[in-house]
Automatic annotation (TrEMBL):
It comes from the Bacteria. Residues 82-289 form the Alpha/beta hydrolase fold-3 domain. Keywords: Hydrolase. It comes from Actinomycetospora aurantiaca. This is Alpha/beta hydrolase. One of its GO terms (molecular function) is hydrolase activity. It holds the Pfam family Abhydrolase_3. Gene3D superfamilies: alpha/beta hydrolase.
Length: 320
């Protein structure tokens, strides 16, 4: 593993490990939201030529903020739509932290990207984030025209906990008869909160994320309900049926305790007849796509995401 990644992981663990954060520390981190501007080189900066619009919308569960990214240059009507769910273990993270990924996808796919500010644990435990993300995805599908997007099938995308939510929203969309989803982009996703993946043992003490931290995030998200981990809305790998789900891109990192969550989910999707592209990024830790300033595979991984979305999202002409 790159020495810079090791040093970064150690520094992050000393200053912001979820395992050692008090409830007050978590609350302060959630209020802080975006990473400091001085860390732009590490986390990446918003792409030039992309407009960003924050709006608050009324959903069945309450008012939620959406961050909308659109390329500034005129190109075409009816851009494809991608809904993004940020990472952070369902406890940390923010839409601001996804600026680099979302703005680059918007520019390179020529798409409208909508990032969801879902509610966080421990104040709002499972399944609050799930319902926020599903409701937001349904709202975006219904209002695609006013966002400058295509009213046809959209894509869902997420990293880490966001990858979990993207997989779960895809399941719910199938089982609740919509909205139509053409692609699911699952970036080092958590898919089994029973913590049964072998990599949790073999990669227990890795930079950026350790198995102890995985357990801590799960505890904040699920609380004391032991049965919740087997609910497919928490562990999409445990769904009884994966048939009929949208085509998937699944990316994992070699040095990640939840690496096998992604590989096992890709296998389950393939076994159910779902088209899957699976890539393991060698030498990378959990979170590599959120750290383009230090992880050398981030540009390649972004290119793979963009290519998959271009291939899967077909823009439908407006009815005349």
């Amino acid at each position: 593993m790159d020495r810079r990644v090791r040093l970064l992981g150690r520094a992050m663990r000393r200053t912001a490990s979820i395992s050692s954060m008090s409830p007050q520390d978590i609350e302060r981190a959630q209020q802080q939201g975006a990473p400091p501007a001085v860390l732009g080189r590490l986390f990446g900066r918003r792409r030039r030529g992309v407009e960003v619009d924050d709006r608050v919308v009324d959903l069945p569960g309450g008012r939620r903020r959406l961050r909308v990214y659109r390329p500034s240059a005129a190109s075409r009507e009816n851009r494809p739509v991608v809904v993004n769910f940020h990472g952070g273990g369902w406890v940390l993270g923010s839409v601001e932290g996804g600026d680099w990924l979302c703005s680059n996808v918007a520019a390179d796919v020529d798409a409208v990207v909508v990032s969801v500010d879902y509610r966080l644990a421990p104040a709002d435990r499972f399944p609050v984030a799930v319902e926020d993300c599903y409701e937001a995805t349904s709202w975006v599908a219904e209002h695609a025209d006013e966002l400058g997007g295509d009213a046809g099938p959209l894509a869902v995308m997420g990293d880490s906990a966001g990858g979990n939510l993207a997989a779960v929203v895809s399941l719910l969309a199938r089982d609740r008869s919509g909205p139509a989803i053409a692609s699911q982009i699952l970036i080092y996703p958590a898919t089994d909160l029973t913590l049964s993946s072998p990599s949790l043992t073999s990669n227990a003490d890795q930079p950026v994320l350790s198995t102890d931290e995985v357990r801590a995030f799960r505890g904040h998200y699920l609380g004391d309900d032991a049965s919740a981990a087997r609910d497919p809305r928490a562990s999409p790998l445990l769904a009884t049926d994966h048939a009929g789900l949208p085509p998937a891109l699944v990316q994992v990192a070699e040095h990640d305790p939840i690496r096998d969550d992604g590989s096992r989910y890709a296998e389950a999707l393939r076994a159910a007849g779902v088209p899957v592209r699976f890539t393991e990024y060698v030498g990378m830790p959990h979170g590599y796509l959120s750290l383009p300033g230090v992880c050398r595979s981030a540009p390649q991984a972004l290119h793979e995401v963009v290519t998959e979305l271009r291939d899967r999202l077909v823009v439908h002409p407006r009815p005349r």
